[in-house]
Amino acid sequence: MSAPGENLRINPDRLWDSLMEMAKIGPGVAGGNNRQTLTDADAEGRALFQSWCEAAGMSMGVDSMGNMFATRPGQDPDALPVYMGSHLDTQPTGGKFDGVLGVLGALEAVRSMNDLGIKTKHPIVVTNWTNEEGTRFAPAMLASGVFAGVHTQDWAYGKTDAEGRSFGDELKRIGWVGDETVGARKMHAMFELHIEQGPILEAEGKDIGVVTHGQGLSWTQVTITGKDSHTGSTPMPMRKNAGLGMARVLELVDEIAWSHAPDAVGAAGHIDVYPNSRNVIPGKVVFTVDFRSPDLSVIEDMEKRLRVGAQKICDDMGLGVEFEKTGGFDPVAFDPTCVSAVRNAAERLGYSHRDIISGAGHDACWINQVAPTAMIMCPCVDGLSHNEAEDISKEWAAAGTDVLFHAALETAKIVS
């Protein structure tokens, strides 16, 4: 039951072929994918994944949220399984690797265990989590959230898309309502392989990101009210320019985020200006400030400084301001033992690596609440993701999957 030998590697060509084969389902318009959750393309991708799992000797279980669990038996019938996986759904203009690498990398790890005749004490389970992206049915990480008890299934079933179709009805329509109770499965551990979706690993020439934390998130909607008036005939001293107030608050947001460098970030991505006319001074603006940090105390500090600072800015300008917390979740600290298994694997295999914090949400962030969990990241070109031009190299994919393979084996315990 020692650590797996450094000579144990996955088959990079087979992994790449699987990624390219899955990418044929739900093609995008610019070389990527549009395989949104619970669409016909999602159903087709699920069926292909199931056929591959069964060909690798695994049995498939599906729960009532459509989460897929392919099991490779272990030698100890009482040992809890080691899970690996991510998601097969994509953004409307998504890439071929976001999520998919984590699912098919896990499948490749099992195929390699079969090739090498490796037996493990703990069973191995390869998972496809439903609706990680949240682009069709908000929020993101929906089904893993139900699994972890963060959301109720009834609430999730009631979520609707832009055409008013419900999650529950669409899951039934595509034929992927399973008979397992969501969250009934118990895990020994879970590992999720994912592309970084950021530029750090590529910029530093690192093969592997050892994910120690997931950033917490805070969304505060800010509404600033002034007075609509003519841009040409209103004297400067008599203006109540909500747009100018917003500009000063956004400078404050940037200043607050920089004060907690390098791990904290902040910006406003959603902005509405009223009446949004060329010759009318804005009388109202509504924007959402997105603060993120792996440290909860930092998030709380940023939120407080935003409210105090924005209030002063608006008071000084004679503007009204209101704040509403519209979303967020606390930072995630991944399991130290699982994180060590990832780091040990990278070192054993000779891959360059660095600790990294995930700036995006992932299924692993919710599963971490109910089981020991860690993540592995590989670089992506220019840090680009949620874009059809998203790209990785075969070598990056293989390195990440090798580390997943070894971390899972170390945790599941090889038996001779």
Give a verbal description of the structure.
The chain has 416 residues and is an alpha+beta fold. It has 12 helices and 17 strands. It has helices at 12-22, 40-55, 100-115, 142-147, 153-157, 167-173, 200-204, 242-258, 296-317, 336-349, 363-367, 394-412; strands at 59-62, 68-72, 82-86, 119-120, 124-128, 189-195, 208-214, 216-225, 229-230, 265-274, 280-281, 284-293, 320-329, 332-333, 353-358, 373-378, 414-415. Strands 1, 2, 3, 5, 6, 7, 14, 15 and 16 form a 9-stranded mixed sheet that branches. A hairpin with a 5-residue loop joins strand 1 (59-62) and strand 2. The chain starts with 11 loop residues before the first helix and ends with a strand.
| Mean pLDDT, all residues | 97
H/E element order: HHEEEHEEHHHEHEEEHEEEHEEHEHEHE
Contiguous helical run count: 12
Cα gyration radius (Å):
23 Å
How would a textbook summarize the main sheet?
Answer: 9 strands, mixed
Distance between the termini: 8 Å
User: What amount of the residues lies in strands?
Assistant: 15-25%
Describe the secondary structure blueprint for this structure.
Layout: H1 12-22, H2 40-55, E1 59-62, E2 68-72, E3 82-86, H3 100-115, E4 119-120, E5 124-128, H4 142-147, H5 153-157, H6 167-173, E6 189-195, H7 200-204, E7 208-214, E8 216-225, E9 229-230, H8 242-258, E10 265-274, E11 280-281, E12 284-293, H9 296-317, E13 320-329, E14 332-333, H10 336-349, E15 353-358, H11 363-367, E16 373-378, H12 394-412, E17 414-415
Parallel strand pairs: 3-5, 3-6, 6-16, 7-15
Antiparallel strand pairs: 1-2, 2-5, 4-17, 7-14, 7-16, 8-12, 8-13, 9-11, 10-12
Helix pairs in contact: 1-3, 1-12, 3-12, 8-9, 10-12
